[in-house]
Amino acid sequence: MADTLDPRYDAIRAEARGIAQSLAPYAAEADELDVVHEPMREAVRASGLGRLVVPAAYGGESDVLDPLAIAIVREEFAAVSAHLDSLYGMQGVGSYSLTIGGSDELKAEWLPKVRTLDAIASIALTEPEIGSDLRSVTTTIREDSDELVISGVKSFITNAPVASFFNVLAREGDGYSMAFVPADAPGVTVTSGPDLIAPHIIGEVRFDDVRVPRGNRIGEAGTAFKLMLQTLAVFRVTVAAASLGIGRAALEEAVKHATEREQFGKPLLALGSVSQKLALSWAELEAARALTYQAAAQAASNPLAHIADTSMAKVVSTETAGRIADRAVQTMGRFGLVRGSDIERHYRNSRPGRIYEGSTEVLLDSLARQLGKRAKAAEESGGSFL
Fold first, then answer.
1. Which of 96, 139, 183, 206 could form a disulfide with 189 if both were Cys (CB 3.0 to 4.6 A apart)?
2. How, if at all, do strands 188-192 and 202-213 pair?
């Protein structure tokens, strides 16, 4: 399917691939960091690809963000470096609530900096005791005269130690709201998070009666979950694309090894038990890519109407990448177990995608509920629901 896209997307892919390949010598180093790798930041800034994650009014390419364009960049970046992918992808994920719900003043001040990576974006959702069940968050927002006061703790927050701002989910009265909080606001304390199996810039953020202007509210009071749903509708499918990149890179490593390595007098690729694993991986990769690109294209025109499609793409692509990376390690035998090798790095980097931005289990539960609703509606109308 990659060969049948509009030429515009081909140009974006070529641009992203060129940048990623130029940064490949830094990949192993960058993927172990818990701070921003500055050569990668500079390369992305110089490329201008940040134009895809902000609207045209703030230096972007179009008025409405294009999930397929962002997905293609993330696929190419993730194939080389998880750090590079996260650095780029989180600029969109972390700032999108501001894009759709922030005041004109906040957007004018911050979104041009997001585009150039002069401001690192972050969205603060999860808490020490709260993961997927975000309706149980305990962080609060309250109004005090012309200010908002934010109190609580957020944990496992991507980009926290390097963020320029946080879009913070919190309870407000009986509902849920979101506020824009600069990282240097008085009362904000950031500490680095735990070491993860695939290193990641992550941390804990404490808000101790942090005061920001009332104009820093993102969207209307009580609309936070709508803001998050819109963010997921646009960016969840780009997580699927990043997983495709990792799976593709792992498969390429395994195929290269299998064509060069001989056992029993023939290349590994000539052994049926090996060749079938690799061929199946290729087929699954292409199937996952077709689903992901289709879902991304649908989300470009109407994100919320196609959130089931983007959720399916995320489940299929992340699970596929995990299987491919596992088969790749198996194909490479003892060479696949060498810490610091490219295949070991791809293997570790393939794992987190099945958990963040909606774990496989949470997404499947949601899809099952939607499937039931469609079946009931079809029964009442006498039509098909798939």
1. 206
2. antiparallel
Range of the domain at 218: 123-222
- Tell me, yes or no, whether 386 lies in a domain: no
277 lies in the same domain as 164: no
Q: Using an 8 Å Cβ cutoff, are 94 and 167 in contact? A: yes
pLDDT per position as a tens digit, 130-179: 988 999 999 999 999 999 999 999 999 999 999 999 999 999 999 999 99
Q: Give the pLDDT confidence of 304-348 residue by residue, as tens digits.
A: 999 999 999 999 999 999 999 999 999 999 999 999 999 999 999
Dist. CA 320–CA 240, nearest whole Å: 10
Helix (H) or strand (E) holding 188, with range, is strand 188-192
Residues 284, 282: Cα–Cα separation, whole Å: 5
Residue of 172, 357, 379, 380 marked catalytic: 357
Q: What is the pTM of this model?
A: 0.95
For residue 146, being part of any structural domain is answered with: yes
- Provide Rg for the chain, Cα atoms: 21
Count of structural domains within the chain? 3
